[in-house]
Amino acid sequence: MRRALQAPALPVLLILVFLAAVAQPVWAHAVLMQSKPTTNSTVKGPNVPIWLRFNVRIDGKRSHLQLIAPDGSTIPVDSPKQSAPDVLESSVSGLKPGAYKLQWRVLASDGHMSNGVVEFTVN
Ligand SMILES: [Cu+2]
Q: Exposed site from 62, 73, 75, 102, fewest CB < 10 Å?
């Protein structure tokens, strides 16, 4: 009796595990994989190109970047362009030396927003 119940359970479990593994990249929120400037790096100012690559396709039109200056003020960043479905690109100019925080908020292919921060220094 026990055997008869267990027998179908294992294949079903394996299928669920397989589906979970396969589905993950499709359903994951956007996670930042690579950036320029890189986190905690020091870059040359005053003009700084911004390049962010995520783990999934993102909707550039519904994504937003802004920069927090060393004095805490917010510097708007031009609407990002997409050179690839998982990339956002923009640039900022006129940056003075100091510590900056690039805040990103993006809409991923699964319909969820996610956000994060890249801290870097301009010299
Ligand atoms: Cu999600």
A: 73
